[in-house]
Design a protein that fits this description.
This protein is 0% helix and 41% strand. The protein has 374 residues and is mainly β. It has one domain (2-15, 98-359): Pectate Lyase C-like. It starts with a strand and ends in a 15-residue tail after the last strand.
């Protein structure tokens, strides 16, 4: 179903636990209710609380969210009337139907649950305006179909960091996104265990935490701007899996105070390739990890380029480390890893990193094949 103009969506959701290293988000369970609608000429609600598109709308229709069964009002229609230019749900419902496409101005009133087996697309050029604590909670598939000429823009109704929750991917949930912008969110994309993501060309700014990654997937051609001195936490957290973050700029952090990219989990193995990370305390901070890789990246203007922590098998290959107070440091006893073919302005490591192998350091900064590619 294509909804062209303003689409107001909402779904009451249960609260889930805190997100590690980032703001807690709303994770959709199922919400039950009577599903009753009332008022003359009211269209029927479909199963799962999805509003249908009957030709007329009753005076006081309310629908249920989640997986409840809807009921029909006294003057129930068949639900097969013409598509209105504006669809409005009641206090607890969301017009989420398989194959639905959201276009034009989309008003996201409350969390929108995309159920397992359901695909919702946001078409090129759409603008999503989110109310406080609104979100996309994805157990099915969310397609964000922006183009270079017509990106999809998602922002809060107020331009305040954390005003809306962002996009949360539940277990089994999937996002495929191109040319997307996320502004004013608590967490831009929260990919929880068991989810997948394939994101190409994304801008995230005025947002508390850009990416929270606990599952395998790829983010490429990203730009993640921090809040400078207002940044309270990291811009990227990785807590599980082997995410690939490629051709991505991470900057405007809180220099000397807050880390930008944090890795946790003894088996976590992200790959950071062709990145640029600047303006923060630790560009990368590996509390733990196994085989974490930074390659072909430009790491500059940070207190630490990399704080190794307790990670093992760390691979640091063909990077430029410049204008950092310490390039690689704060290594714990028993770590392991290699620093190969890197350029370091200054000493490669501090005195704590005796367990790292440094080899084939470049005599001058690389002028190509380092940092994000177009």
């Amino acid at each position: 179903m294509k909804t062209a103009a303003a689409v107001a969506v909402g779904l009451a959701l249960a609260s889930c636990g805190d997100n590690t290293n980032g703001p807690s988000g709303d994770m959709g369970g199922t919400t039950t209710g009577s599903g009753a609608t009332s008022g003359p000429g009211t269209g029927a609600t479909g199963a799962g609380g999805a509003s249908t598109t009957g030709a007329t709308t009753g005076n006081s229709g309310s629908t249920t969210g989640g997986d409840s069964s809807g009921g029909a009002g006294p003057g129930a229609g068949s639900g097969v009337g013409g598509s209105p230019t504006t669809t409005t749900t009641g206090a607890g419902g969301a017009p989420v139907m398989p194959g639905q496409t959201l276009c034009g101005d989309v008003q996201l009133g409350t969390p929108m649950n995309i159920a397992a087996g359901t695909t919702v697309a946001i078409c090129a050029g759409a603008t999503v305006t989110a109310a406080s604590r609104a979100s996309f909670v994805v157990s099915g598939t969310l397609l964000v179909q922006g183009t270079m000429a017509a990106p999809v823009k998602m922002a809060g109704a107020q331009h305040t960091p954390g005003f809306w929750t962002g996009i949360a991917l539940a277990a089994g949930g999937k996002i495929v996104a191109t040319f997307a912008e996320i502004h004013d969110a608590a967490t831009g994309v929260d990919a929880r265990a068991g989810s997948t993501y394939d994101i190409d060309h994304i801008l995230i700014d005025n947002t508390s935490l850009g990416l929270a990654l606990a599952a395998d997937g790829t983010v490429s051609h990203g730009t993640i701007h921090g809040l400078s001195m207002n940044q309270q936490g990291p811009l990227i957290t990785v807590t599980a899996g082997a995410p690939h973050v490629v051709d991505t700029l991470v900057d405007k952090g809180y220099f000397g105070a807050v880390d930008s990219v944090i890795v946790n989990g003894p088996t976590t193995a992200p790959v950071f390739d062709h990145m640029e990370v600047a303006d923060t305390h630790c560009a990368f901070h590996f509390n733990s990890g196994a085989g974490v890789t930074i390659s072909h990246s430009y790491v500059h203007h940070n207190s630490y380029g990399l704080m190794v922590g307790s990670s093992t098998g760390t691979q640091i290959l063909h990077n430029n480390f410049q204008d950092n107070s310490i390039n690689v440091g704060a290594c714990s006893v028993g770590i392991s890893g290699s620093l190969n073919e890197n350029y370091f302005a200054g000493a490669p490591t501090d005195s704590s990193c005796v367990f790292l192998t440094v080899s084939a350091s470049a005599p001058a900064a690389y002028t190509s094949d380092v940092g994000p590619r177009p």
